[in-house]
Amino acid sequence: MLGSRTIVTLGATLALAGCVAAPRSALDRSTVLGSRIERVELTDIPVNGQPVVVTYGGGRCIVEGELIAVTRTTLVVLDNEGALWQIPITSGAKVEIELYSSRSSSLYTATTAGSVSTLSHGYWLLASFPVWLAVGLPLASSESSASHLHTQSANTPQLAAYARFPQGSTMDWTGQARPPAPCQ
Amino acid sequence: MVTRCLGICLLLGLASLLGQTGCKTSTAYRGELIQPPAQRATQAAGDANRPNEDAEALEAVRERLRKNNDPYLKCHFQDGSVIVLQDWHVVDNTVSGKGLKYNSQRVVVEQSEFHIPIGSVALFETNRPEAIKSARLPIMATVATTSVALSTLCISTPKACFGSCPTIYATDGKREVLQAEGFSSSVAKALEATDVDALFEVPASWDTPELRVTNEAPETHAIRSLSLLFAPRPRQGRVYREGERYYAASALIEPSRCSNGSADCLLAVQRADAEEYKSDTDGQDLASREQLVVEFNDVPVGELGLVLTARNSLLGTYLSYQVLAYMGEDWGNYLAFIERGDPATVRTLRRIIEQLGGVEVEIAQGNGVWAKAGAHLEMGPLARETVLLKLPQTKAGVALRVRLTMTRGHMRLDRVGLVRTLGEVTPSRLVPVEVLRHQERDPDALSRLLDPGQYLVTYPGDEYVVKYPNPRCDNCEWFVESRGYYYTWMRRAWLREQDLRQVGKLLVVPAQMLKALAPSYRAIESELERIFWQSRVKVSHGTNGSAQ
Asked: Distance between the two ends of chain A, CA-based, in angstroms?
């Protein structure tokens, strides 16, 4: 049988996972995220905007891509198919910014695989399946939330810091970017 | 059955997935935006106090840039282009540094040393790369990989995990002695393997070859085959095995000197006898290394080989049993996992036994530099094994110095010798013709050893005498080739030590655990051999032999 100590150990793991799960809320780019790296290749320094997911129209419309610029009136996003979109600030859009590449998808995949693998445990599945879910899902979720920022489009000055052109207000995007399609 | 296989395959997959991703860190780029006065001026056009404010603002920007110690600086321009500088600095009103210029489409258009007037820049952005280490992946990996921990310790290092395995006795011409242990790295059916051991002490003329095969530990042995290999010896020489190759070699040359840096070890390694060289662990780190320098004066002309006769101490056994104890009552689960899984996947997780290693051999060059000659890992704690390690060409007539590096307290060296190899030989094979159990013929056991599709399964205390035909060879070298696998039984006393956190530590920080376990091993080290040999299961007939 799955020993009680095993369950206790996994429970402790879950508790530890809870401790390290800290949601990120500060929009300030000068916030320290990790330990300093002295040197990377110059070509590795990103010169594009951060990946964003912009949700507007009451959650019915989503544009996903690179944050190009933030003007006084619009968010400009280059979607994954190469199209530029202008999303009015006044739309009340919600913006999710990916600060760095997280491995949450690996953790979700691992949780799924581990949970399915408990089919091989026979009666132990009653204990091992919930343990997999209880440990895996919070870990994957916290991994994801730690690497993403959620904000409103109204926070334009701070949001601009994550764009390809943080000086974006000096550029004229009229005619280059298409307005958002009507939400379905 | 299908669901079990599916589950185990998935578990292996996720262990691999976590292993691949868990070691990597993500990189984030902290940034600070600094707006130069030209941009402020644009926004504040028409202000009468502008010149003074511009000067103050410029000084403020210079000051902020000077104080900033981020290693990278981006200069964003009005047209959308950007220059990324490294090793940048500020002199007067100019920012300088080596960098790359990108256009607005983010295509590199120039690579140069740039000197950029501060006023020409729309926006400065300092960048500092930061490593994001997630505590979540190791946690998840620990949960997943506990299922494969023991297998990782046992799979890839031959004979690291003790079992008496099939313990093989053969005559030395006068009496029956323990001469080999079969497939001791095959701790599960999925790891079934063929193992060859030299029967170095049997007489050259062995008219009635027979082996006594016993099971002397709480284990289940499954023997698929048990053959004898033999090859004619050269005049005044022997035949040695190096991996899967066999070489005829000249008479063995004894070393003239041996030192471990603080003591003489010549007598211990000069001859194959009961006297072995063995050091004790230092009580601080089970991975501490030691070196022996062995010198040969009479170096012959030709291709040379180093002959090692040795066995492991019980250090690896102790560690393996400790891991089993940490696994506790979940061991059966892990074993099933190994059986259904791909050993190559779990092999990547093994660490701790690897740190113990085997014997690394180097030879001294004329300029005082040591050159690697090879390594030998395959030993076991029961029977001394004799193997050959071919050496690079050296000058004849010059003393040859060989340096052996190994983990302190891990090896028992019986003999180190030098031979001149005379060429490769191909041994002949003998298969059993008769099997006795309780001194009576056992045709079923014989048919199982002869049928590649069946196993001879033995349990603690079992003993079989396996006979072979007369090889009609008056001067031959002998080897035993065994194939099969075995299961180690969990001991009740070990269950009390179950602690998966320790298993996790062994996987994550094996070096630290080798230090942590060092004092407890040191405390019992001197008594371990005696207790070990006494703990063997008595077989039905005959007297258990030993390598001692």
From this structure: 53
Q: Write the pLDDT tens digit of every residue in B42-98.
A: 454 444 455 566 777 788 888 888 888 888 999 999 888 999 999 899 888 899 999
Among A154-168, B467-481, B502-516, name the most confident range: B467-481
Amino acid identity, position A58: G
Predicted TM-score of the model (pTM): 0.52
- CB-closest option in B24, B76, B132 to A166: B76
Q: Are B315 and B402 in contact (CB under 8 A)?
A: no
Residue type, B183: F
Strands of the sheet with B245-249, listed across from one edge: B238-242, B245-249, B411-425, B304-312, B385-390
Query: Cα–Cα distance between B169 and B178 in angstroms, integer?
Result: 4
Task: Tell me whether residues B144 and A110 touch, CB distance under 8 A.
Answer: yes
Of A147-151, A160-164, B40-44, B543-547, where does mean pLDDT reach its minimum? B543-547
What does DSSP say about strands B463-467 and B82-91: parallel, antiparallel, or unpaired?
Answer: unpaired
Partner-chain contact B499 A146, CB within 8 Å: no
DSSP track, B292-353: EEEEES-PPSS-EEEEEEEEE-SHHHHHHHHHHHHHGGGHHHHHHHHHHS-HHHHHTT--HH
**ipTM passes above 0.95:** no
Nearest residue to B313 (alpha-carbon basis) of B269, B291, B360, B281: B281
- Max CA-CA distance within chain B? 118
Return the structure tokens found at A59: 């959650």
Chain A partners within 8 Å of B137 (Cβ): 103, 106-107, 143
Name the H helices within B212-255.
Answer: none
Find the CB nearest B84 among A39, A45, A135.
A45
Alpha helix (H) residue ranges in B397-473: 443-450
Window 16-55 of B: residues touching A by CB (8 A cutoff) are 17-18, 21, 24-33, 39
Q: What pLDDT, in 10s, does the model give residues B426-464?
A: 999 999 999 999 889 999 999 999 999 999 999 988 999
Tokens encoding A28: 């300030």
Tell which residue, B70, B62, B57, B74, has the closest CA to residue B114: B74
